[in-house]
């Protein structure tokens, strides 16, 4: 992670020294976060959980209509579960409601290549996230009357932990898709979709991937 930030700083410094036009901004977004969980016995698609992200941006001009847009964000990923499960006991089938949620806090670095025409911008690029902390909880029953497990989310990549915590890999690689409308007063409206590409589950034959859609507003301090 440190190497990524160092390379970004060096690239930005080279562009600044070459006279590239740069402007800086801040933004805050509401997001709809979800994800997928798969293993040989379970294939679950999480429901959308509404959350947030916030961060800073640097728009670095590469040409008349092309710019590089790195962002550094704090984002709360993770979805929720609401499933009906059927199990058999002494020859009788029972259906129960399984509920759960995952709250995963990340430091995220998307780097978009952006094309701008007029006030509209569109772009895409890679995204690297680093897990900081989180919580998970599972219950069964229509009224969440039986708690099956809850604990912290630990980003240590441990695949043999014997505690109640959820263990995931810290680094996550994704693809980010970006669009924005920029007003002449420095305010902008932005939307993005972040697709998790790497498997963050450390357990063999198991997969966990994050996705989210974001919509928010921001402000550039130095206008063009």
Shape: elongated
Largest sheet features:
8 strands, antiparallel, barrel
Percent helix range = under 10%
What is the percentage of strand-forming residues? over 45%
Poorly predicted segments? none
- Write out the strand line-up for the largest beta sheet, numbering strands in chain order: 1-3-4-6-7-10-11-12
Determine the CATH topology.
Porin
Provide the structure class. mainly beta
Q: How many domains in all? A: 1
So what's the CATH class?
Mainly Beta
Radius of gyration: 21 Å
Q: What is the mean predicted local confidence, pLDDT?
A: 85
The succession of helices and strands, N to C, reads HEEEEEEEEEEEE
Tell me how many strands there are.
12
Count of helices?
Answer: 1
CATH architectural type: Beta Barrel
Give the N-terminus to C-terminus distance in angstroms: 31 Å
Question: How is this structure best described in words?
Answer:
This protein has one helix spanning 2-17, and strands at residues 22-38, 43-45, 49-61, 66-77, 80-89, 92-117, 120-140, 146-154, 166-167, 171-182, 187-196, 207-220. The chain is mainly beta and 224 residues long. The chain has one domain: Beta Barrel (Porin). Strand 6 (92-117) and strand 7 form a beta hairpin. It starts with a helix and ends with a strand.
Supply the key terms.
single chain; 224 residues; mainly beta; Porin; 1 helix; 12 strands
Quick structural gist:
This protein is mainly beta and 224 residues long. The protein has one helix at 2-17, and strands spanning 22-38, 43-45, 49-61, 66-77, 80-89, 92-117, 120-140, 146-154, 166-167, 171-182, 187-196, 207-220. The chain has an 8-stranded antiparallel barrel.
């Amino acid at each position: 992670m440190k190497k990524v930030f160092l390379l970004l700083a060096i690239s930005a410094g080279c562009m600044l020294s070459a006279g590239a036009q740069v402007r800086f901004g801040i933004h805050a977004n509401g997001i709809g976060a979800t994800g997928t969980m798969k293993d040989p016995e379970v294939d679950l698609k999480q429901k959308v959980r509404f959350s947030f992200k916030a961060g800073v941006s640097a728009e670095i001009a590469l040409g008349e209509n092309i710019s590089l847009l790195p962002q550094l964000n704090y984002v709360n990923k993770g979805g929720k579960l609401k499933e009906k499960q059927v199990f058999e006991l002494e020859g009788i089938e029972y259906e129960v409601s399984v509920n759960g949620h995952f709250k995963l806090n990340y430091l995220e670095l998307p780097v978009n290549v952006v094309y701008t025409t007029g006030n509209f911008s569109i772009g895409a690029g890679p995204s690297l996230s680093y897990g900081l902390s989180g919580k998970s909880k599972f219950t069964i029953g229509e009224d969440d009357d039986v708690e099956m497990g809850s604990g912290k989310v630990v980003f240590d990549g441990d695949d043999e932990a014997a505690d109640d915590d959820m263990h995931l890999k810290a680094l996550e690689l994704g693809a980010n898709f970006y669009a924005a409308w920029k007003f002449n007063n420095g305010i902008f409206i932005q939307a993005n979709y972040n697709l998790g590409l790497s498997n963050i589950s450390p357990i063999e034959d198991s997969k966990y991937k994050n996705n989210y859609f974001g919509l928010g507003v921001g402000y550039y301090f130095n206008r063009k």
